[in-house]
Write a structure and sequence with these properties.
The chain is α/β, with parallel strands linked by helices. The chain is built from 17 helices and 15 strands. α5 links the parallel β3 and β4. It starts with 7 loop residues before the first helix and ends with a strand.
Length: 406
């Protein structure tokens, strides 16, 4: 069963307006499945560089590779053969036709160098995530989560009938969503093993793979928290320079997101380190060995896990509209005042607090006023995302909103 994806129109538009389209995203988010669905009636040849024979030829002799594949192509996992980028440039420059090559890759780290060096101006870059709740509900609302009046007036599908915590625990990967019979523990064990053995090895020279596996678990225990490189280094037994490099690998692979601190010259006491989120809450629950949605919901980290889910859903809402770098920030200062998330749009700041509570109140927004000091901005709607069933106004510009309907 195919699940329609929110990013489909972005991909189709890119194919009609660029010679090359690159769809990036971590493993198993559905890149190839979506492209095969969208292009099922088009004249594209599909080539996977997971195939050793295809890969060996692509790396050894790119010209010969394209002699064997002379029509329009979908090339899967292009990062394994960056040697193809230059030849792709030469081929697309010979024709004005759009959509000549559709590329996919799960490592933006190595992909971006080849793209910027060879295909600048010729390629549309699209980032694809695991399933969002909108996609699971087949909610046809396709706008980024900018909490303006238009967003709140939109007619949305309700999460009613779906357990939010079951969704958080199982995760967002399409195969796990479509087939409840798949054993989650076995699936994620294989997922992590494949990621470390193939992707990590090919991105950089990580010699101690067991230490890297431990490092991922240490990070999972720090979701929705400010990154402290020295503390992580001490726990893993590495130096902070190595930890920064490894975090960059996870970010480049699409496994984690880093939200940067909001900076303004009138907010001098703000902490500068980023906050870390995992792209898949199901992977977090696996890494931290939470056996069920019930134990996850009542566990010591439930607030952090819920925040992780909410922030990533917001990130997906931007990615699915073609915004690769969402304008999202957080605020935390040395006086322990904090705002979980800030959405910036057209000079307006929208502060968001994320709470596990089902009884929101105005006190939860007590730190939002800090942003009034930010020079050059105005403050828009203020939002408390929480576990309520429907939207609720707590004040004229303060809105409590269901986390499940981001």
């Amino acid at each position: 069963m195919y699940i329609n994806r929110g990013i489909e129109n972005i991909i189709k538009n890119a194919i009609n307006t660029f010679k090359v389209v690159l769809v990036t995203g971590s493993r198993q988010v559905g890149k190839s499945t979506t492209l095969e669905y969208l292009l099922s009636e088009a004249d594209y040849e599909y080539v996977a560089l997971d195939d050793y024979n295809e890969l060996e030829l692509a790396k050894r002799d790119p010209k010969l590779f394209f002699l064997n594949h002379s029509q329009k192509m979908i090339i899967d996992e292009i990062q394994y053969a960056p040697e193809l980028f230059r030849e792709i440039k030469l081929k697309v420059d010979q024709s004005d036709e759009y959509g000549q090559f559709i590329l996919t890759g799960s490592q933006t780290f190595s992909l971006m160098q080849g793209v910027t060096e060879s295909l600048a101006g010729r390629v549309a870059i699209i980032h694809m995530d695991g399933l969002s709740m909108r996609e699971i509900l087949q909610d046809n609302f396709h706008r980024p989560m900018i909490p303006n009046d238009e967003y709140f007036k939109a007619n949305r599908k309700s999460i009613s009938g779906i357990s939010l915590w079951n969704k958080i625990h199982r995760g967002c990967l399409p195969e796990l969503t479509k087939n409840p019979r798949i054993d989650k523990e076995q699936y994620y064990a294989s997922y992590i093993s494949t990621y470390i053995e193939r992707d990590v090895r090919s991105i950089t020279n990580v010699r101690d793979l067991s230490a890297f596996a431990q490092f991922i678990r240490v990070l999972a225990a720090r979701v929705a928290q400010v990154v402290n490189y020295n503390e992580i280094a001490k726990e893993v037994g590495m130096n902070s320079k190595t930890i920064k490099s490894w975090i960059s690998i996870l970010e480049a692979s699409g496994l984690i997101f880093l939200i940067q601190a909001f900076s303004n010259n009138r907010l001098a006491r703000a902490i500068k380190s980023p906050v870390l989120y995992f792209a898949d809450s199901g992977l977090v629950s696996y890494l931290l060995r939470w056996p069920s949605s019930e134990t996850l919901m009542t566990g010591a980290m439930s607030g952090y896990i819920l925040e992780n889910y909410a922030v990533v859903e917001i990130i997906k809402s931007f990615h699915n509209c073609g915004v690769i770098n969402p304008p999202l920030y957080f605020y935390r200062d040395k006086d322990q005042k904090e705002i979980d998330l800030i959405v910036e749009s057209s000079g307006t700041l929208y502060p968001i607090e994320i709470k596990q509570s089902a009884s929101p109140n105005k006190n939860m927004a007590r730190h939002f006023g800090i942003l009034e000091k930010a020079e050059g901005y105005k403050i828009g709607n203020q939002v408390i995302l929480c576990q309520i069933d429907k939207k609720m106004y707590l004040d004229r510009n303060l809105i409590a909103y269901p986390i499940g309907e981001i």
